[in-house]
């Protein structure tokens, strides 16, 4: 998620690390705040791989600021990650939302639709937070009001997710040659 966020935001414009961290934190929210201990090693790894360029710019006072930008290799890496996301980026809701934030950078609507179809296929598999006799438990099958709430909210979210995915896939397929 962090690598995809870094590549995605830098594809939009060059940024210094503080601004990049702010944008990543805004995207991931309070669920997964980005620490300097995670960000700077990731930036160093991506720079070493040739995906990021660093340029020193005047900063406040005597300390220069490093502005990060995406190299052509970094852009190619972003496109590859968007075209073939890892399974966790399809199955984990927070990871999928990060993927979705940058999916518009994938130039081919057919590739975008293929990624969304993977998510829809996952969403169409029976699942639950709780199981009884090896099958997913539905809200109506529990007396616990809090578990019932969890299952009710999850079912409503899943219906909304599937409806949006189906509509967006239809739109993208209409746009594809």
Mean pLDDT: 92
CATH topology of the largest domain: Arc Repressor Mutant, subunit A
Q: Into how many domains do the coordinates divide? A: 2
The end-to-end distance, rounded to whole angstroms, is 31 Å
Question: Can you tell me the CATH class of the largest domain?
Answer: Mainly Alpha
Going by helix content, strand content and strand pairing, the class is mainly alpha
Shape: globular
Number of helices: 8
- List the uncertain runs: none
CATH H-level homologous superfamily name of the largest domain: Winged helix-like DNA-binding domain superfamily/Winged helix DNA-binding domain
Please tally the β strands and state the result.
Answer: 5
Give the topology string: H per helix, E per strand: HEHHEEHHHHEEH
Strand fraction band?
Answer: 5-15%
Rg for CA atoms: 20 Å
The largest sheet has its strands arranged as 1-3-2
Which percent range fits the helix content?
Answer: 55-70%
> What summary fits the major beta sheet?
3 strands, antiparallel
The second-level CATH architecture of the largest domain is: Orthogonal Bundle
